[in-house]
Amino acid sequence: MDYTKCLIIGSGPAGYTAAIYTARAGMNPILYEGMQQGGQLTITTEVENFPGYPKGINGPAMMEEIREQVFRFKADVRSGEITEVDFSRRPFICKSDAGTVIQAETVIIATGASARFLGLDSEKEYYGYGVSACATCDGFFYKGKDVAVVGGGDTAAEEALYLSRLCRKVYLVHRRDCLRACQELQKRIFNTSNIEPLWNYVPEEITGESQKFDKTVTGLRLKHVLSQEEKKVDVDGVFIAIGHHPNTTIFQGQLLLDDQQYIVTKPGSSHTNVEGVFAAGDVQDRNYKQAITAAAGGCMAAIDAERFLGSI
What we know:
Strands 1, 2, 5, 6, 7, 8 and 19 form a seven-stranded mixed beta sheet that branches. A five-stranded parallel beta sheet has the order 10-17-11-12-13, covered by helices on one side. The two termini are 23 Å apart. α1 runs parallel beside α2 (59-72) and α5 packs parallel to α6. The protein is α/β, with parallel strands linked by helices. The radius of gyration is 21 Å and the shape is elongated. It is 24% helix and 30% strand. The protein has two domains: 2-114 and 244-311, FAD/NAD(P)-binding domain (3-Layer(bba) Sandwich), CATH 3.50.50.60; 117-240, FAD/NAD(P)-binding domain (3-Layer(bba) Sandwich), CATH 3.50.50.60. It contains seven helices and 19 strands.
């Protein structure tokens, strides 16, 4: 059985930042990176909105640099994932997929949230090369171009409105004949001249061109849900906006979760409803979902954990 003052579950900007801060504080953290080492940024191409990179940086390269910083402070970084937790008493008992049992005085959860996707093969093929789940992250690359947003809720409406300020044309593709977004967002959608709703359509295929070292999206093939008629729109980018699901399955019954299964934290902190357990990044953030806010959350969680240990 291993023992640590702080177990960090998950990598990405939140987990790695928490590891940097806790290691520097002498807490000798153990970090389990999970199934996706480095988080969602490892499947992102260019990152231009993270401070400190004036020329932008490739997503995997940025996460590797942050990871190297974690190793600089000698955090115990482990591959694999935590599959079981018991937060009923301290020290907390957690178990990895390899069967390792860890006793932890504090736990920082940074397991993130995963974007929901359509399940198309072409969606996987062009992800990061014209297919995105974050307009704030990638919209700049489509300035003056035509794009499509898939979805009909608040997220899709917000993505379409954001892109409308950058792009020449935004197609809003929805499988129903009306939006599910709130009325205020709907009013803004219908009053924005370069947003064109495509009602009762579902994506069938994202088309594109593949070269030796690059891929490019060229269009979106749609099918009408009533008539089964097919329609093709020429676009340079496709933004999937059908929601996210937080990676909180193993915490159900252990922590307070909201109606969408995000971890609930106390306002202005990373504290969960269990003393000594903290959450950072997209796993508790329903609103921003940015690398910089996740990193900030990791910093907060580390400081909260250090202060908690100092108070007991």
